[in-house]
Amino acid sequence: MRRAALLWLLLATPALAQPSGSFSDFVAEFRGEALANGVSAQLYDSIMPALTPDPNVPNLVETQPEFTTPVWDYIDARVSASRVERGRAALSRNSDLFAAVGQRYGVDPYLLGAIWGMETDNGGVLGNTSLIRPIVRSLATVAWQRRSRFVEDKADLVAALQLTERNGGSSPIGSWAGAIGHLQVNPSNVVKHGTDGDGDGRVDLHNSLADALATSAVFIRSLGYQPGQDWGFEVSVPEGFDYLLATRDELRPISFFAERGIARVSGRPLPKPEHRFSFMCQPARAARNF
């Protein structure tokens, strides 16, 4: 679970900026964009003008551990023996469902299980009202703040309003950043990839683990995931290796690393030479490389 969870962490880190005007000004200005993307005027006017900024969002943005803690320290703090044990028990209880999703969508069930454990402690936090709340207000606050992810934040707000319309005017619930359900999928990807995994005619990532797993599997495949291909692996590096090559922002072919003496610690062969990976290293005190 430790390694697979890294896939979900390699995301851009948002920075908090200053709003360019009042919240009510933002709501008025955003109306045209929302309506142009299929949100009805009736829904928008019944929800958005009555909103006020969520006062908790600025602190949550600035202190979210994924964004303020080095990735290795974050994983060490989040992946405990007790969490792994809970994850194994949860996977065992739902083994048939995970196997069926893996078979149908071609995504490793253990990858899905790792994400489930890291994101919501296997669904354990979904009933925590201090963490899980109606997302339209939070997303409106985040979009108004104009983070570096401003375009994505606006798209998620539009998607949240679209989902609200589908729900008969009831806002979906999720994290302050809008992530929904057991595996915390953002609203834009719920709209794009939402999948009815349990066959009840609805897509409900909060109350249906089957829907959450199916949607996440479809989303992961859309990112280019290839069945049977490793997301990554631990490697050894030779003396004198150039650690300036350690960046997740540039993908290089395996042949590039093989020529520089990198090898898998497990003794297994490297993937095909044309497959592209980035190189990540821990601080010297830990000396593990992926």
From TrEMBL:
Q: Where is the signal peptide?
A: 1-17
* UniProtKB keywords: Signal
The protein here is known as: Lytic murein transglycosylase
GO terms (BP aspect): peptidoglycan catabolic process
Q: Which domain of life is it from?
A: Bacteria
Cited Pfam families: SLT_2
Under Gene Ontology molecular function, one entry of this record is: peptidoglycan lytic transglycosylase activity
Q: Which Gene3D superfamilies match?
A: 1.10.530.10, Bacterial muramidase
Domain Transglycosylase SLT per the UniProt entry, residue ranges: 23-280
